[in-house]
Specification:
mainly alpha; disordered N terminus; 211 residues
Length: 211
C-alpha cells in the first residue's frame, strides 16, 4: 500500500514538473512573439516616413498648379462651344475630366496645411491673369481673348497650339515637384501629370500634323 502511494506521489510530481515546463516554454515563446511584433511594425513606419511631410516645394506646386489647371479647364470649356472638330471636343472633355478632380485634391491639401487656396480668376472680365502669366505655359490675357474670338477650324488650330504650350508648362512644373517635393501624394500627382500630359502633347501634335 505504501509503495503504491509513493508511486502516485512521484507521478503527480512528474506531472507538475511537466506542466511547469510547458508554462515556461509558452512564456518564452510569447516573449519571442512580442519581439517579432515589434520588428514587424518597422516596415510600416518606414513607409510612413517615405510619405514625407509637405515642404515649400509642395505648397508652391499645389498653389500654382491649381491656377494652371483652372486655365486649362477654361480653355476646354471654350472648346465645347467653338471647336469644329469632334476630336478636339473629346480632348477638351478629357482634359476637364482629369484636371477638375486634381484641382479639388490640391485645394484640400492646401487647406489641411493651413495655406491659402488661390482665388479662382478664370472667367473674369478681361481674363486678368495677375502674376499667373509668369508660370510656365500660362496664356496671357491677349492669348485668351484671341482664343475666345476664334471659331471653327481656326479655333481648333489655336486651341491645340496653345494647349500644347500649356501642357509643356505643366510638365515642367511637375518635374520640379518631382525633384524637390517631400509630400508623397503630391509627388505622385506630379508623376501622373507628367505621364498624362506628355501623352496628350503627342496626341495634339499629331492632330496639328506636326508628327
Amino acid at each position: 500500500m505504501t509503495a503504491h502511494r509513493t508511486l502516485i506521489r512521484r507521478t503527480a510530481l512528474a506531472a507538475t514538473a511537466g506542466v511547469a515546463a510547458l508554462v515556461l516554454s509558452a512564456c518564452g515563446g510569447g516573449g519571442h512573439d512580442m519581439g517579432s511584433m515589434g520588428s514587424d511594425s518597422s516596415p510600416s513606419a518606414s513607409a510612413s516616413a517615405k510619405n514625407g511631410k509637405h515642404n515649400d516645394a509642395d505648397v508652391s506646386f499645389a498653389t500654382e498648379m491649381i491656377q494652371h489647371h483652372r486655365q486649362a479647364v477654361e480653355m476646354a470649356d471654350l472648346a465645347d462651344s467653338r471647336a469644329s472638330s469632334q476630336e478636339v471636343k473629346d480632348l477638351a472633355t478629357k482634359i476637364k475630366g482629369a484636371q477638375d478632380p486634381e484641382i479639388k485634391t490640391m485645394s484640400g491639401w492646401l487647406t489641411s496645411w493651413g495655406e491659402e487656396v488661390p482665388a479662382d480668376m478664370s472667367g473674369m472680365e478681361g481674363h486678368d491673369m495677375g502674376d499667373m502669366s509668369s508660370m510656365p505655359g500660362m496664356m496671357s490675357s491677349e492669348d485668351m481673348d484671341k482664343l475666345e474670338k476664334a471659331s471653327g477650324a481656326e479655333f481648333d488650330k489655336t486651341f491645340l497650339e496653345m494647349m500644347v504650350k500649356h501642357h509643356e508648362g505643366a510638365v515642367s512644373m511637375a518635374k520640379t515637384e518631382n525633384a524637390n517635393g517631400g509630400y508623397g501624394p503630391a509627388v505622385k500627382l506630379a508623376d501622373d501629370v507628367i505621364t498624362a500630359q506628355t501623352a496628350e502633347i503627342e496626341q495634339m501634335n499629331k492632330m496639328l500634323g506636326m508628327s
